[in-house]
Amino acid sequence: MQKIESHACFGGRQEVWQHLSGVLGCEMRFGVYLPPQVALGPCPVLYWLSGLTCSEQNFITKAGAQRYAAEHGLILVAPDTSPRGEDVVDADGYDLGKGAGFYVNATEAPWSRHYRMHDYVVEELPALVDAHFPTTTARGISGHSMGGHGALVVALRNPGRYRSVSAFSPIVAPTRVPWGQKAFGAYLGLDTETWREWDACELVAGAKARLPLLVDQGEADEFLDRELQPSRLQAACEAAGHPLELRLQPGYDHSYYFIASFIGDHIAHHARALKE
Amino acid sequence: MQKIESHACFGGRQEVWQHLSGVLGCEMRFGVYLPPQVALGPCPVLYWLSGLTCSEQNFITKAGAQRYAAEHGLILVAPDTSPRGEDVVDADGYDLGKGAGFYVNATEAPWSRHYRMHDYVVEELPALVDAHFPTTTARGISGHSMGGHGALVVALRNPGRYRSVSAFSPIVAPTRVPWGQKAFGAYLGLDTETWREWDACELVAGAKARLPLLVDQGEADEFLDRELQPSRLQAACEAAGHPLELRLQPGYDHSYYFIASFIGDHIAHHARALKE
Q1: How far is B263 from chain A (nearest CA, A)?
Q2: CA A170 to centroid of chain Cα atoms
Q3: What angle do CA A68, A130, A260 make, to 5 degrees?
Q4: Average pLDDT of span A237-252
């Protein structure tokens, strides 16, 4: 592990680290915010999964989350959104390949060699983080858009592993919308039955655990009707009796200005669960 | 004036506007944050001057200032750092030409045609802002690095025009350091006597008004000794009896992580003066 950046920030440190990922078969970077409370002892970790086109930089430079993490004593970990490097296969367009890993384990060539973001985010990265930073075992997960999908799916697929989950503008039903159908067709193949285990609405229907979902969605989001469709999650949660707090925010769009405006609420939500 | 961007943000709106500047002879963009309080009546304006290489985007996406502006009811205006466009002369290097206007009025060819950032920031832009947005007459000014120099110089040169001033990591003595000497040599020519009216330390010595200066400086700033040298400002203020609060912040560097950590203090400082 190599430290790439280190900046004092709200009494703690915002760092960027690089390491060789065995799961992904390439060098990866992630951001980690260490709040001032790490001087006193281990802190819980909130993982953040970013959206299409993002790297590890977007959340750490634009969300303003460090202020709230410093208030509550949470470590923030923000990975990249796909495998990277010259020998990693890519595609034309922003919504497939690099920057668009969709937090699945690809089964189809040529993607299956590197695109295993689920296992990276759930297994390899937390093991690395726990080995190098003063963490407790309490983990939460959140994310935006493709990363909101990632957070919901990761939490629902791995009951007991996360104590809290939330999402901004998530793709709640990737099997039903163009972004998800394009990515799943490439990464998972044409048998759409296999897609269902990567779709938050499908997972809610079969969930045994009842981890409450907090979702913020801007009503002026330019992708609302075509790609996001939060009413599908609302219907799935109602049908399954799964707890959901869906907050529709009038006037807000898909940008980091939206995330910045409500990330404080989300970090408070995670802190309540992680510090119990 | 053309609106380029508009995003809901902390109950207000973050916008970007483009207009033809007569002073600079080119199209210019600026960011404006309108807090929720503009719905109730006019609000004071805090101008923010950015540093080398920045556009109107850096401050509005990275500083996290909107949260505090929304709390205090301040409008934030963030201009670009130089004239722009294909027919504006540029130079090799990040510290001269585009992105490096230094908030002076250039007197030397070929710079004097477009590089008049002082008059743009002090005269043209506020007139435009006051004509288009619900402003009071109360103005403050702040900035970072080259823009910290700009904020101090603009406030000291124009007594009575700003009610409050602050700076992060300012170039306090541009006539004495490499960045300033390179820029002033190009923009103002070889007669160094003319440089003095654009140097905060020189201006403090001759200042008739006593506007208090708030300055934050990171002690781990990579440019501290070579380009910033805040002790020169401290000495000049002590000699002149000019009020200065210089805060040296241990561990902080020159980045926006530093600005984000203390912008709340600065906005509170300005709000106290602007809402009197």
Answers
A1: 11
A2: 10
A3: 20
A4: 98
Query: In this predicted model, what pLDDT tens digit does every residue of B95-109 receive, in sequence order?
Result: 999 999 999 999 999
Residue of A4, A6, A9 to mutate when probing chain B, most B C-beta within 10 A: A9
Sequential DSSP letters for A124-172: IHHHHHHHHS-EEEEEEEEEBTHHHHHHHHHHHHSTTT-SEEEEES---
List the single residue in B67, B220, B256 with the smallest CB-CB distance to A8: B220
Q: A8 vs chain B: nearest CA distance in angstroms?
A: 5
Distances (CA, A) of B138 to A203, B74, B95, B130, B274: 55, 10, 32, 11, 5
pLDDT at A205: 94
Between CA B40 and CA B33 the distance in angstroms is 15
pLDDT tens column, A149-168: 999 999 999 999 999 999 99
Q: Half-sphere exposure (CA, 13 Å, Cβ side) for B142?
A: 28
Cβ–Cβ < 8 Å for A104, A152: no
Residue with tokens 């997972």: A203
Alpha-carbon distance of B49 to B151, in angstroms, equals 7
Across the A:B interface, residue pairs with CB atoms under 8 Å apart total: 66
AA identity, residue A51:
G
Task: For A172-213, write each residue's pLDDT tens digit.
Answer: 999 999 999 999 999 999 999 999 999 999 999 999 889 999
**Nearest of B99, B126, B252 to residue A11 by alpha carbon:** B252
What is the domain-level CATH number for residue A132? Answer: 3.40.50.1820
B131: containing domain: 2-274
**CA nearest to B258 within chain A:** A9
Catalytic residue among A80, A221, A242, A269: A221
Handedness of CA B217, B220, B221, B223 (dihedral sign): positive
Total structural domains within chain A: 1
Arithmetic mean of pLDDT over chain A: 98
Q: How far is CA B112 from the centre of its chain?
A: 20
Per-residue confidence (pLDDT) for residue A248, from 0 to 100 = 98
Residue type, A53: T
Q: How far is CA B17 from CA B4, B33, B116, in A?
A: 5, 11, 20
Three-state helix/strand/coil letters over chain B:
CEEEEEEEECCEEEEEEEEEECCCCEEEEEEEEECHHHHCCCEEEEEEECCCCCCCHHHHHHCCCHHHHHHHCCEEEEECCCCCCCCCCCCCCCCCECCECCCCECCCCCHHHCCEHHHHHHHHHHHHHHHHCCEEEEEEEEEECHHHHHHHHHHHHCCCCCCEEEEECCCCCHHHCHHHHHHHHHHHCCCHHHHHHHCHHHHHHHCCCCCCEEEEEECCCCCHHHHHCHHHHHHHHHHHCCCEEEEEECCCCCCHHHHHHHHHHHHHHHHHHHCC
For residue B166, give the nearest of B33, B262, B52, B231 by alpha carbon: B262
**Residue A272: its H or E element:** helix A256-274
Whether the pLDDT of residue B54 is over 90: the answer is yes
